[in-house]
Amino acid sequence: MGHIDSIIIGSGAGGLAAALALAKNGQKVVVIEQHYVPGGWCHSFYLGGQRFSPGVHYIGNMEKGASSSLIFESLGIANDLVFFRMKKDAYEHCQIGEKRFDLPAGIDNLYEKLAQQFPHEKKGLKKYLELVKKVSTQLYLIPKMSGFWDNLTIPFRTAQLGKYGLFSLRRVINWHIKDPLLQQILNVQCGDHGLPPALASFPVHCATMDHYFDGGFYPMGGGAGIVKALTNAIKKHNGEIRTGVGVEKILIETTGKIKKAVGVLLENGEKLFADNIVSNADPHQTYHKMIGKEHLSKSLQSKLNKTKYSVTSLMMFVTVDLDVTKAGIDSGNIWMMREKDMDRLYDDMSAEDILSDEEFPGLFINCSSMKDPAGFNGRHHTFELITYIKYESVAAFINERKERSEKYLQFKERVAEKFLNSLERLLPGVRNCIVQKNVATPITNEYYIRSTKGNVYGTEKTLVQVGPFSYSPKSEIRNLFLCGASTLSHGVSGALNSGLHTVAKILDKHVDELMVPEEGQDVRIYDAEDRTQWPQWLIDKVELRKTQFNKRAGLAVS
Questions:
Q1: Could you tell me the pLDDT band of residue 148, with boundaries at 50, 70 and 90?
Q2: Chain centroid offset of residue 253 CA
Q3: What pTM did the predictor assign?
Q4: Do 125 and 99 form a contact (C-beta atoms < 8 A)?
Q5: How far apart are CA 548 and CA 379, in angstroms?
């Protein structure tokens, strides 16, 4: 292959962002992906002609000049992306017991809406939302600080972060909000980091809420739309992406006390050598599986042994032949849960016997065909239902081979029934309209993503595993770097950002030097439910998909 500057292990958002940034800076890069398609949690797959995206359900900060948009502009792929704005006045639906609360885009709109519904909490609510915004802003300010003056003024410019940074979400929200139902509404986005308030880092939750204060956006083409833009750009800059082959070992060269990563051994026996190795895999997969403890310091081994990973998931992918809009389904997310203290709710979700009740205690429902009208065939709607569980709940099936046992298949059928019981409450009679359904378990996550214990957010985002306590993008082994959800941050934007921070370390630059938008790059954004604002090419695309479906189905085309 000739000389390779950087090998990137794993093609998640962080790995692809790192590969593209390095390639744009003149490096020869090779991305290695064990799955047969690139993307990691951003990949999409098809069942019966319908597309599903297991890890991308919405992205925030997509307006011009906002952080997510800036990343795409800086990578030079903004013009290749289209995003649909989810319902402005209800991008999040909180179905708590029999009560429903809608969260609108805009922090002022959110305050006004909740203040009307909880007038006795107006004062505390205003202070709390202002605090969340300040802490998040100050959190993102720290990496940008450099030089004597910035260092001198850090304590003053990050006062709220310093005051509340070491507290849990539960402690801080209890100081400001007393109504348990309002607390549950404000904490609904705990699902976006997977931790209950008692364990969640308050700054992490602030960053999560702030990310979506201006609403949610969904990529045209699902997660695959982002992956396609990234992979096409990597190839344009002479990068290579290999799929269907994993990395067996990271090759380490030892000279005295100095250890250096020099290449990789692929599972097919091939060896590749490079100046830099970037792992987009989680720390356990990177250090324990691909390197081995004999090459690690005692302090790193100790840290790895103490590391806890985030929640794992059960997912169901469903296609229905039903006009879901008649039941009030729109482009907004649905968080369905029991009316209960959020910490106790997460305890219920973590029970080892997950088949006992008729419904899951809490779940997330995503109707991707409403979020991405360009992917809707005019008849069949697609849903992704997700709940979190403990990995131990599937312990009996972990060592099964590819041929799954009858007991495992029965387990998945029971899981599907529990999901459908909840979906039936939203869409009465939906069981009679199901075209197809498929259940994914933590074992599925391990198989396709190779995430430790099927985790969905990398390391747990507790106080002792974030910020300065997270895994550094520059490892103790020379020329070995990390990126992804266990380093800087999680989620699509967090992972993309982590890739750029890792590249900054490799190139010995400040990350701001990589976050310069290319001239003429703009993400196109259209309202998912307002066709009057769409350009003609988008209208034609939507109509063509419907026409093609009707022809295949043998239906008359009007």
A1: very low
A2: 35
A3: 0.95
A4: no
A5: 12
